[in-house]
Amino acid sequence: MKSILAADIGGTNSRFGHFRLERDGTLALIATKWLPTSEAESFTRLLEQLGAGDFSLPPEEADLAVIAVAGPVERGTYCDPPYISWDIDLARDEERNSLQQAHLINDFVAQAYACRSPLGRSARQILAGEIVAEGTIGVLGAGTALGKASLIPLPDSTFQALPSEGGHAYFPFVSEREFAFQEFFRKKSGRPHITGNLVVSGRGLRYLHWFLSGEELKPQEVTGSAEWDKSETLAWFAGFYGRVCRDYALEMLTLGGLYIAGGVAAGNPDILTHANFKSEFLDSPTMGHLLAKIPVFLIADQDSGLWGSAFHGQQQLRQG
Length: 320
Fold this sequence. Notes:
Mean pLDDT: 94
Order of helices and strands: EEEHEEEEHEHHEEEEHHHHHEHHHHEH
Distance between the termini: 14 Å
Largest sheet: 6 strands, mixed
């Protein structure tokens, strides 16, 4: 039996999972460990912290490590994440020598592979539709930022995930009041470019509530208030999230289904069940009939990135 060290390195937390590839070909999750990303001065030190603790799989003993990180991956070995103070370079001696064999992938590539893991198969259905077996699968979600990826079925019954940095694209505001919010966001944040990363993340929730109510609160204070479920903030945010999902479903033609991951929706599923999410998702004068056929799912388990990394590792071990 082979062991897989799965990692999901985020701007706030770094999650690790010990998976075992069983003789029948299935994956078994043995243990997980979360570490604060900012408390490590480098990726090497993060691995040292993991190895020095009580985690069941020392990094150097893993048959394969699959490391998912929030940022674009270059040459399959390097990433300089935009929201982490250090980079990852598997070609550097200190990092290469601490792992027997390692693959570096984008964090939402891992989320895409998670759609075909047990977590994906048990995902909560938000909007009904008809899955096309050979269709492209889309996955997106917001936490510290907005991630996107897609998953393509291959003829040999495996899957290929395609990364995206679409969260850095401009967010499409469409009305005078939304334009006023855009200007408010620019002035208060000091950022001239208001992207999807900013609007449907926790930061966006904070600025949106500030604009609508005049209250400057932390995101968790906004969603934890007694008025949250009836608030104008929720109504706007649900519509914004639906817009992001609709545009990506059309861009990638996600006939295999659209999956939503990430801490914002996982912690606040009422964003997706709000009427404004559905109405915005279906709002297309030319493609509304097509969007109505695309099912939308929520993967709420925060270990989904680990399962996706392990699924990718499983495919690699089978092919190797």
